[in-house]
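The freezer alarm interrupted the setup, so I double-checked each line after restarting. Inputs confirmed:
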Amino acid sequence: MHCAVLVFPGSNCDVDLYKAILQIKGATAEYVWHKDTDLDRFDVMLIPGGFTYGDYLRPGSLAGVSPVIASVKKAANSGKLVLGICNGFQILIEAGLLPGALLPNQSLQFICDVVPVKVTQSESPFTSSYQLGDILRLPIAHGSGNYYCDEATHKELKSNGQIAFSFTPENNPNGSDAGITGLLNEQRNVLGMMPHPERAVKQWLGSTDGLGLFQSMLEHHKA
Amino acid sequence: MLKGVITVMLQQNVLDVQGQAVQGALKHLGFESVEKVRIGRQIEMILPTEDREAASLQLREMAEKLLANPVIEYFQIDIKEA
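Predicted 3D structure, all chains:
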């Protein structure tokens, strides 16, 4: 499984993501600058967290129209896996690969914490290593992670089983609609999520609960 | 030359936490009666044309493609003499 780690001006979780991939036996990774458009050699496209273009205009909006994103869309349409984490999630939404919007946290505060995250869809290439209802301990670090969509979209997301991860009702740090914090596209080959699985891959990082996500992707690739 | 002005605002049904916080601060200053503060963004640009209709179409396309997010925002276009 050869993974592209996309790098934009202002990406800052690219190295973490790259190193997380190298934890997985059978996975390799390569950095790709946002002006490159040839992604054919990759099986998986990874969009890391950060503050691309200083979050100007709206978080993810300027990166969302970068040259590489057209190729990411092409890869997604061909069925390849695309994962966006934190700012990567914001970019996928701005690029129109996932529905809804990410608003500033309801508290207006930047939240940096480790929180319980519930697996609400285990039947996807990203979550098959988990059990439905598993509570993962994952780090979050964001200022705009408050997921919003209109009622019709919400109903659709629910009935299609597109909600992959949710905060628990007792612990919804940013005010997201129904605690949504991980979202699949309808085909389930694109996932955007606010929590950072790449920062939960070693016991000394405080949690290894993120490994399952990358493991799931590898299993999907082998199948 | 024309000046294009695009004003982007959050839709009424989207909670504006920034506006709420500013409303609170205005209250601290004694502006107790202020209601429903909403914060948006204005983008100005110079367009090297005198054709208002073409400029309007172009500005609309820019707003739809990048400057406003139709899921949560709406926009208004004004065209002035530069």
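Quick read of the result. The radius of gyration of chain A is 16 Å.
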